[in-house]
Amino acid sequence: MKRFCILSLYIFFVSLLYAQTVEVDGAYRWTGVNKSETGLDYVFVIPSSSQATIRFNSTSGSPVNWYRFDRTGINNKTPISNGNSLTYSSAEKDYGYVIEQGDASIYLWLSTYKEVSSLYADEEYANQCEDVRLAGTGLDIAYYTVNGKWKGVNRAVAYKTWKWDDTLKDLKMVEDTVQGLVSKSGETVSLYAPAPYEKTLFTVIDSIPYKGWNGAIKTFSTSDEYEPRAILMKAVVSQQLRDAKNEWNTAPEDGSFGGSAPVEMEFKAYVSGDNYYAWEFMQENPSEVDDPIVDAIYPDKILRYTFKDEGTTYVRLKATNSYCSRDTSFTITVGESRLEAPNIFSPGTSPGVNDEWKVAYKSIVQFKCWIFNRWGVEIFRFSDPAQGWDGKYKGKLVPPGVYYYIIEAKGADNQNYKLKGNINILRPRN
């Protein structure tokens, strides 16, 4: 372990001592290159009219060897210079270069900049629910990997769309800019951008022409606005929670909704454009059943619903148009009922401790309770199981002794309860 630490420190300090970087005069360094995928350390983009001069910066005095390779990869690399020169001033564009010094090698590619001269959205593209394929000329600023695979420099694309705003808690129209993915199929080069949710023009923005390129940032837009197919949908679902200490109301452990009935829910739908949407209620899990039976449909933006029946209900928000559909589902589980009544309490003895008679319950959707004294006189009644009796009659504490209750209730699982029993009020003699 000690040797490993010493070796790691040695490698770290040696890498600092012999730092190596590359610059190309007048070129733009594209930072999107993935070395693990391409084998390249650098990709530079340079105007067609500029002379390419590569400058190798190294703090080591070891000899430097230069090689050039074409689009077939480094298997056909050709030596172009050797010795101690750290500058190569005759670099050709659209070639790759290898700089070797000692045991280290740096791989780079020089690409010729192209200006977009035509741009349009491909209406025949089949995946318009997810992204848009842009076609035109001048899209392909190409480079090749060390293994000879074609790659394209991604280009910035601007357009209007909708996004979810966490601050506003609503959808918000924005003008977004993303790095569009340039790809090639056969001889066709395409630019892929995320599908917009608003009617918009697509604009390629060249951030490549910058200082030293003698010109402002260049843009090129589609001539026709794109009609969106994709659907942006956001569902906000919440459950009204109760804090009655005498209710067994344990929420499901899997992050779904539910617990003790009645379960009061609020469903809010946010959907872009004029797309149709509705809340669908079903007993089958839509993630497990391809075409579940829908029991009820509610085409409401805000839906408030109370679940009173024991069991699991799946609620799906589904949005559709002529091209695309989106959906998301939520699980609401109502537990079976339970009802128990105590037979002893001590009101007026220790405030806050056992000074109220309450039932313990779960998933009780109908409830009535009557309390009587030993002579059959009704002294209290209530219809909310979360409430209780404070041991008073006409505002005064009743004497200690035996009292009686009758309860009629119904559970979310349709179980009927008819309970009766005695209540013993204990209070020490003064």
Automatic annotation (TrEMBL):
Assigned keywords, A-Z: Signal
Superkingdom as given in the UniProt entry: Bacteria
Signal peptide range: 1-19
Pfam families per the UniProt record, alphabetical: CHU_C
Transmembrane segments: none
Protein name per UniProt: Gliding motility-associated-like protein
